[in-house]
């Protein structure tokens, strides 16, 4: 039997739908009706994703990118936030300028440069220079060589370090970087290092494993993951010689009915738990305030999507209606770390106790970077079933 309350929503349906209803009644099956009809209108079902998480390495050596390539990567990261990658008409240079004009400097962190500072005369006050760099920006990665210093960081760090300190030495580095990329480094003044004293080399060759870990950076994009996964991964923060930066898809400005799409036609994507033992087609029954309810996961998710549609139609903005969306909402994130932090990320995200969804992509990413940069990641051992990994190295601060 079809419930009375189900029949009341059929008044606006066409003849074809009514014929389908007669067929359903005859077969005693109303699942099609419940999954396809809301408030007298036919809609698409919410899309369920199971183990569809994926990654894309945007660059495994950011410091080697040209100025044009750096600006393009910054645009790629920045358009992730509002999902405007396919519709943005700005050039990478225009996009970077827009970010700076709006004070949205976080996206400039998806970049990297290493400089080596030395002295032609051999009289190089490393301790003094190192302290001045630390005062300018305490996030700089600084490594001491016998007769020089290696200094690495993202371009936001170099730019803000100059603005904050006004130090002539920092200004000189800023001036050289501005010659390379005047879009990011808006040149102020005309400083240069004394030719008979200091020398600066941009992107010197890195020697030891330690230098490569600290002074080389990689950017990775993760897609078709849940909001829960992105909430977990952003808990990784900058630490001792470890740098982290993020660009995360926003639910405040990303409307699933954007660019004039009908609110009845868009489709929300949800990521199912990475649990292969759970039957996601089963009917789950529960009681609230004395009323019994029975839903399949698909049906319940459809109701959430329908609720969001109606909230939007009632006038709530996307940033307001999102309050009812679950943490399983599909999301995208771009992560830029130096390799030292990527090692730490693999250490905590590939173990058997790690979150299953993150571990799924983390192990696969580890496999790829072991091929690309084996000298930095060959002390991780991936399990035979390919589902987890173990760190075999001896670094207590991995």
From TrEMBL:
Write down the Gene3D superfamilies for this protein, in alphabetical order.
3.30.1360.170, 6.10.140.450
A GO molecular function held by the record: thymidylate synthase activity
- Lineage, opening ranks: Bacteria, Candidatus Portnoyibacteriota
> What SUPFAM superfamilies does this protein's entry cite?
Thymidylate synthase-complementing protein Thy1 (SSF69796)
Organism this protein belongs to: Candidatus Portnoybacteria bacterium CG03_land_8_20_14_0_80_41_10
**What is the protein's given name?**
Thymidylate synthase (FAD)
The residue ranges crossing the membrane are none
One of its GO biological process terms is: dTMP biosynthetic process
Superkingdom is Bacteria
Which Pfam families is this protein grouped with?
Thy1 (PF02511)
